[in-house]
Amino acid sequence: MTIVAAILTALVAIEHVYILYLEMFLWTKPQGLRTFGMSLEKAEETKVLGANQGLYNGFLAAGLFWSLIHPDAVFAYELKVFFLGCVIVAALYGAWSASRKILFTQGMPAIITMIAVLVAGVHA
Q: How many distinct structural domains can be found in the chain?
């Protein structure tokens, strides 16, 4: 289960790198407009906010990647739990404030990963 938890953690981290890319670099491009359901005018008005959101998603990804490479198993486990918890809270807030879709696209992968991490526990 430890390997499954690590793979799932990596996938959640990769997802957040992709979200960073969407929000920071594609916000006003056709793919960003489609993904976030915005007009070009609205996207232009909010592109600084989108980039800021993207940066925060990058921090989540960085923390998850850090949890995968940290040599201390206990601290690595704590990092996984903390950063996955942050992703889950962000997804819950995003689902409440922006779109329910966020609960499924960001929240469910993180929740499933959190369960895998908790079941795997700490392994030295």
A: 1
* Residues whose CB falls within 8 Å of the CB of residue 56, separated by 6 or more in sequence, listed in order: 90
Integer CA distances (angstroms), 88 to 15, 28, 98, 110, in order: 13, 26, 15, 6
Domain encompassing residue 90: 2-120
Model confidence, pTM:
0.93
Q: Please list the pLDDT of the chain residue by residue as tens digits (124 residues).
A: 799 999 999 999 999 999 999 999 999 999 999 999 999 999 999 999 999 999 999 999 999 999 999 999 999 999 999 999 999 999 999 999 989 999 999 999 999 999 999 999 986 5
Q: How far is the CA of 26 from the CAs of 13, 35, 40, 98, 99, in angstroms?
A: 19, 10, 11, 19, 19
